[in-house]
Amino acid sequence: MTIFKQITFAALLVLGTHFVSQVQAEDAKAGDIVIHQPWIRLSPGSSMASGYAALENAGKADDTLLSVKVDGVPDSQLHEMKMEGEVMKMNEIPGGLKLPAGATVQIWPKSSYHVMLMGMTKPFKVGDKVKGTFTFATAGKVEVQFEVMAPGSMPGMKMN
After folding, report:
1. CA dist., res. 27 & res. 32, Å (int)
2. 10 Å Cβ neighbour count for 114?
3. Which residues pair with 76 in a beta bridge?
């Protein structure tokens, strides 16, 4: 391999590693619950955003996600979207989001669930890391780092 090809390969390897680290939010774990890739999608020109993650319950007992809190966001709600007739309705989930034993629940743009983040006190920027807390009925509180993504974007799903 020529020196030019070696340098080019090394540069691409470094850039590729940097790019992957930029789009992979960190997983967090508490008891039997694993929170995969917590991230926030900005809403253009708004003081609202949406939070997402995949919640894996590796245990033998059901659990319930009671709330999600995000630094700099005074009001957050777990929402479910569903069709009622020909109208898409979005409502807060009463009692929290159920996590069946041995299942993964997607809080993801193509699922019916999301965390509605309202009244943000300072605008987030793409690439920001924002502290948050998921609270479960059994597993308790789990601290996470959300990665802020641009409107319309979505990270690749990483499941271990």
Report:
1. 13
2. 21
3. 117
List phi, psi (to 5°) of 120: -55, 130
Task: Describe the chain by its helix, strand, coil percentages, rounded to 5.
Answer: 15, 50, 40
- Cα 2 from Cα 55, distance rounded (Å): 47
Supply the pTM of this predicted model: 0.78
- The one-letter amino acid at 12: L
Which parts of the chain sit beneath pLDDT 50?
Answer: 4-23, 157-160
Residues whose CB falls within 8 Å of the CB of residue 4, separated by 6 or more in sequence, listed in order: none
Q: What is the pLDDT of residue 44?
A: 77
- All domains in the chain, ordered by first residue: 26-149 (2.60.40.1890)
SS3 at position 14: helix
Give per-residue pLDDT as tens, 36-49: 999 999 887 778 89
